[in-house]
Amino acid sequence: GLSFHWHGLSMRGANEMDGAVGITNDPIPVNGSFIYDFRVEDGQSGTFWYHSHNHLQRAEGLYGGLIVHKPKPWWESRDEAAEHLVMLGDWYHRTAGEALKFFSHPGAFGNEAVPDSILVNGHGAYNCSDAVAARP
After folding, report:
1. Distance between CA atoms of 25 and 3, rounded to whole angstroms?
2. CA distance 5 to 51
3. C-alpha distances in Å from residue 65, one per residue of 74, 87, 125
4. Distance of CA 38 to CAs 12, 44, 81, 85, Å?
5. CA distance linking residue 1 with residue 78, whole number of Å
6. Which N-terminal stretch is annotated as signal sequence (predicted)?
7. What are the contacts of 27-36 at 24+ separation with CB within 8 A?
């Protein structure tokens, strides 16, 4: 299953939409559906982000950005072309499960696994000449 947790948006009056699996709601089952229905409060405009809050899905890339504009009268134009959303993410050159093993190992002393490189809007670059040759 999966869920979406919204960073920076108030879920006042809609706690069940917060997406914290096991705390505010159950995960959406495989082949299931769920409609997130919450109101963005007055004054909550800006750039926010969301991510899955179930298992290791965020580390595997299930996250994104959300732009909330201030309400404008319909007669005022908005220059949408001037906006660019940039999402930065960690890129582990191993599975999220392997990174979690490091993080949860007592010898890690609570330190997070350091990402091998960075993703910009889901894209990364890596010099594969440094990769260790392996066969399945």
Report:
1. 9
2. 5
3. 25, 7, 21
4. 9, 13, 27, 23
5. 38
6. none
7. 27/1, 27/2, 27/3, 27/54, 28/1, 28/2, 28/3, 29/1, 30/1, 32/1, 36/4
64-68 long-range contacts, CB within 8 A, separation 24+: 66/6, 66/9, 68/9, 68/40, 68/44
Cα dihedral sign for 125, 130, 133, 136? negative
**Dist. CA 36–CA 16, nearest whole Å:** 9
Domains of the chain and any CATH numbers:
1-73 (2.60.40.420), 86-126 (no CATH)
User: Rounded to whole angstroms, how far apart are CA atoms 14 and 37?
Assistant: 8
Per-residue pLDDT at 115: 85
Give the number of other CB atoms < 10 A from CB of residue 13. 10
User: 10-residue block means of pLDDT along the chain (136 residues)?
Assistant: 91 89 90 92 90 85 89 72 83 83 81 84 83 70
From the CB of residue 17, how many other CB atoms can be counted at a distance below 10 Å?
20
